[in-house]
Amino acid sequence: MICLLLPLKLIAQDQFHVMIFGGLANYQGDLRYKKVSLDQSREAFGIAAKYDLSAHLAIRAGFNFAEIQADDKQNIPSLQYRNLNFQTKIEEGNLLLEYSFLDLEKTKFSPYVFAGVAIYHFNPYSFDTLGNKVYLQPLGTEGEGLPQYPDRKMYQLTQFNFPFGAGIRFKVSEGISVGYEFAFHKLFTDYLDDVSKTYVDKQVLLQARGPLAVEMAYRAGELKGGNPNYPADGTQRGNAGKYDWYYFHGITVTIAIHRGNNFTGNHESNWRKSMSCPRPREDPAFGEAKSP
Asked: Which residue from 118, 22, 14, 6 is spatially nearest to 62, judged by alpha carbons?
C-alpha cells in the first residue's frame, strides 16, 4: 500500500508525510472484560505513509506491530477459577482515511479522526506446566475442526478488521508534528484469545488432539485448591455472543517529506523541481532561454 502512494510524492512532495507510532496495545475479550485498560498492556509500534488530499482530508497506509496478552488471574473474580491465559503478536497492514478539524498550516494543533480497513495476523499461545510455549489454534481446544462438532470450524489466523479512532497533533516546527492517538480495531472473530464457546467432551478431545489439548483447554486444576475435574461437554467456557477487540494508543511523530510546495502554489513548477529538471540556459546566439 505504501508503494502505491510513493508515486504521489513525485507530484506534490509537500503533501507526502511519514508517520511513526510508538505506544501500548491491549485487548477486550473473554479474558478481560474491561473495555479499556492499561492492565497487562504490551508494546506497539507502527509506521505509515500519509498523503494529504486537502488541508483537512488525508489518506494513510501503514503497518503496525504489537503484542497483547491476558490472564484469568487478573480477570474479574468470577472467572479467575478458569486459570486460562494467552499471548499473541499482532502484525497488521491498514488503509485509513483521516479528517483533521483544523488546518495545521494555520494553527498550532488539530484534533482528527480516522477510519478504514486492515488485514492482520495473530497466533495465540500459552505455556504448559513445564514452561513450554504452546500454540493454541492447532489444538482445537473447543473442538474446532472435529466431526463431532461440525459447527466449530478452525479459525483463520489472518483476517480483516475495521480500525477507527481519534487523535490530536501539535506542530513543533515546519514539517514536523507530534501527537497522541487512540485506535480501536473491531474484529470479526471471538478467538483472538482462543476462548469463545463451551468445553467439549474430554475423551473426544483427548483421542483427536492428545493430552496437551486437554491440558490447555481446562487449567483450573493447576490452581491451589482448584477443581481438577474436567467440565462436562457443553459447560460454558467463554462468551460467544461478543467478538474480541484490540486497541493501540501512544505517541505519533509526523514528518513532511521535501516541503516547500503548497496547495495554492505552482504545481507545474514544483513538479519540474521534484523531477530534477535542469534549469534553462541562455542561448548565446539568440539571447533566449533554452533547455538542453
From this structure: 118
Judge contact between 137 and 122, C-beta under 8 A: no
- Rama region for 6: left / alpha / beta (φ>0; ψ in -120 to 50; rest): alpha
- Helix axis angle for 267-274 and 2-11, nearest 10°, is 110
Residues 117-151: pLDDT tens digits?
A: 999 999 999 999 999 999 999 999 999 999 999 99
Give the residue among 121, 7, 123 at the shortest CA–CA distance from 64. Answer: 121
The string over 218-239, giving b where at least 16 C-beta atoms fall within 10 Å of a residue's C-beta and e elsewhere, is bbbeeeeeeeeebbebeeebbe
Determine the Cα–Cα distance for residues 279 and 292; give it in Å rounded to an integer: 9
Q: Which CATH number fits domain 2-266: 3.30.300.180, 2.40.160.20, 3.30.9.10, 3.40.50.720?
A: 2.40.160.20
- Between CA 289 and CA 92 the distance in angstroms is 52
Identify any residues that bridge with 47 across adjacent strands, giving them in sequence order: 20, 63
Contact partners, residue 207, CB within 8 Å, separation at least 6: none
**Is 191 within 8 Å of 242 (Cβ atoms)?**
no
For 144-197, the pLDDT digits (tens) are 999 999 999 999 999 999 999 999 999 998 889 999 999 999 999 999 999 999
- 3-class DSSP state for residue 33? coil
Q: Render the burial of 241-262: b for 16+ CB within 10 Å, e for the rest.
A: eebbbbbbbbebebebeeeebe
- Single pTM value for the model: 0.81
Rounded CA-CA distance 183/24 in Å is 11
What single-letter DSSP state applies at residue 240? T
Q: Please state the domain extents for the chain.
A: 2-266
Q: Which residues of 193-212 are buried (b: 16+ CB within 10 A; e: fewer)?
A: bbbbbbbbbbeebeebbeee
